[in-house]
Write a structure and sequence with these properties.
single chain; two-stranded antiparallel sheet; Ribosomal Protein S8, Chain: A, domain 1; 39% helix; 11 strands; 336 residues; alpha+beta; seven-stranded mixed sheet
Length: 336
């Protein structure tokens, strides 16, 4: 199965149109398309436009609200709760981050809990919002159970990703965006879509044994054993329990129950460096850190030591110039 190469603008138009045909508000369709194409531009195709079909199905079957009334409630000088009214998580998380940035500009920090949301896509998009304003961004979200806890034979937590964005003066921002599982579920789904095998440390079959067949994967393994498992718990407490949302096995599944609203929680935070130090000095120090990391002697098999998010940023430069590869099956769906 081959790929179609498309410009990011054209791809965004196709996704937006597909969502609008389903009754999604134009403004919301625009944001969802932007976040999905952002992921594809960074080479994180697992969170890119291949998800469009899933979202459309969920809207059609009643598990996603195409016309949400997103509301905001201040709960303190630096805290807010955002109620997403079961709309698209991409739109809700972007709004939540906007509010956190405003709080941080006024008060040094801003922390926003999100309730009644849905899958929000690549967290890198939201922490970059903060980094673009010379702020430090934090974002995390729980997901439905798909990862075995360390020492366990069945899933309990989700892939529970977390992300951080750190602005620099001259370099692009440092963006760390990672699942607490060894890989994001989307990468297994992408391997199924493209007919590829997977490394044996990604997931386990129904008997709890590692497998290289993406179609046999029933659960994923945590990143770094007990460490990834511990971080998954942290993410679920902050985005789930802290916001009064569900946790672990109590979260509505992404794939399966398409009629049911997912009621996901997210946690976003922003730190204004001006509250702690001189902003210019901070930005220059981040630059110095990046430059010095680049000067570290590379190990055999590596050309250069990169900072978190840099491989994706280099891919983004390439795809902006040359177009994004999209599986033929996804392209067929988008133009249908």
């Amino acid at each position: 199965m081959g790929n179609i190469i498309m410009s990011h603008q054209k791809l965004k138009e196709l996704v937006k149109k597909k969502l609008e045909q389903t009754g999604v508000l134009e403004e919301h369709a625009e944001i969802v398309a932007e976040v999905l194409v952002h992921a594809d531009l960074r080479g994180v195709h697992s969170h890119g436009v291949l998800r469009t079909e899933h979202y459309v199905r969920r809207v059609k079957e009643g598990g996603l609200n195409p016309h949400p009334n997103i509301s905001f409630k201040a709960t303190g000088p630096v805290t807010e709760i955002v109620d997403g009214d079961d709309g698209f998580g991409h739109v809700i998380a972007k709004e939540a981050m906007k509010h956190a940035i405003r709080l941080a500009k006024d008060n040094g920090v801003g922390v926003v809990g999100v309730v009644n949301s849905s899958h929000c896509g690549a967290l890198s998009y939201f922490v970059r919002q903060a980094a673009d304003e010379n702020m430090l961004g934090i974002a995390m979200t729980h997901t439905d159970k798909y990862v075995v806890p360390f020492g366990g034979a069945e899933a309990f937590f989700g892939t529970n990703p977390l992300a951080f964005g750190f602005p620099a003066k001259n370099n692009p921002p440092i963006i760390l965006d990672m699942a607490t599982s060894g890989v994001a579920l989307g990468k297994v789904l992408q391997a199924r879509e493209t007919g590829q095998s997977i490394p044996s440390n990604w997931g386990v079959d129904e008997k709890g044994n590692p497998t290289t067949d993406p179609h046999q994967v029933v659960s994923l393994l945590p990143a770094g054993g007990a460490k990834g498992y511990g971080l998954a718990l942290v993410v679920d407490v902050l985005s789930g329990i802290l916001t009064g949302s569900a946790f672990g096995p109590h979260i509505t599944a992404m794939y399966g129950d398409y009629k049911k609203m997912r009621k996901l929680g997210h946690f976003v935070g922003v730190i204004n460096p001006a509250a702690f130090t001189n902003v210019d000095s901070f930005l220059h120090a981040i630059d110095q850190m990046i430059d010095e990391i680049h000067e570290v002697s590379p190990a055999e098999g590596f050309d250069k030591v990169l900072v978190p998010g840099e491989p994706e940023q280099l891919k983004e430069q390439h795809y902006l110039k040359n177009g994004i590869p999209i599986p033929e099956s996804v392209h067929r769906y988008l133009i249908s």
